[in-house]
Specification:
Layout: H1 2-9, E1 15-16, H2 35-56, E2 62-63, H3 67-75, H4 77-84, E3 93-95, H5 100-108, E4 112-117, H6 139-152, E5 154-156, E6 162-164, E7 172-175, H7 183-200
Parallel strand pairs: 1-2, 3-4, 4-7
Antiparallel strand pairs: 5-6
Length: about 200
């Protein structure tokens, strides 16, 4: 409740972050669930947050799947479809453009926002490289990483290749993780890049 009230006081939009029921691994270990189970855990977790939001009169801004569930949704249409069915009508989903997640959102009529990342690397196929334990970033590398994504709609993958990010004309969100070492400075560096870009283009 205190987190919701703090967000409300500071005008911070609140989204749900449902993941697999992997408590020990913080949702970053793959589990095989049936489609109806995936829908149910999404309804359950989103609904839990929405109960607190309703008490404070705050809207649910978005849903952004967590950890390995996010990666599974990018790769496996059936997983993406099942999770989408658990998202309340009219609530956008944040996801990786050009993946099964985007396809499922489009086919089920869920509004899609494309994500970029301030503190996650990409593989050569445009997928995210998920670390169970977050590694530190140099702030100059964060700046370069975010700058490339917002200005060129591309990213340098871990093998050195350049990967196109098919964000099209979707609204864009940039994710930074609170369990990354130095997370506050990562967020500040990312925001500075975005603010500069938006100012240049009158946004």
């Amino acid at each position: 409740m205190s987190t919701v009230r703090a967000c409300k006081a500071h005008n911070v939009a609140i989204g749900a972050h449902p993941g697999l029921p992997d408590l020990q691994g913080f949702g970053r270990r793959e589990m095989k669930l049936e489609p109806d189970e995936l829908t149910a855990i999404t309804i359950y977790q989103v609904g839990a947050l929405k109960g607190f939001l309703d008490r404070e009169g705050v809207p649910l801004h978005h849903v952004k799947p967590h950890g390995v569930l996010y990666g599974m949704m990018c790769r496996i249409y059936e997983v993406a479809e099942a999770v989408m069915r658990g998202i309340p009508p009219g609530v956008p989903v944040f996801g990786l453009a050009g993946t099964q997640m985007e396809k499922a959102a489009r086919e089920l009529g869920v509004e899609f926002w494309a994500e970029m990342y301030g503190d996650v690397k990409y593989s050569a196929d445009g997928m995210l490289v998920i670390d169970r334990k977050k590694k530190p970033w140099k702030l100059e590398d964060v700046e370069k990483h975010v700058e490339q994504q917002v200005r060129t709609e591309s990213v340098t993958a871990v093998d050195g290749s350049t990967v196109h990010l098919p964000v099209q004309d979707y609204p864009i969100s940039i994710c930074c993780h609170s369990d990354s070492p130095g997370c506050v400075e990562i967020v500040k560096t990312t925001k500075a890049v975005v603010d500069k870009f938006n100012k240049e283009y009158g946004r």
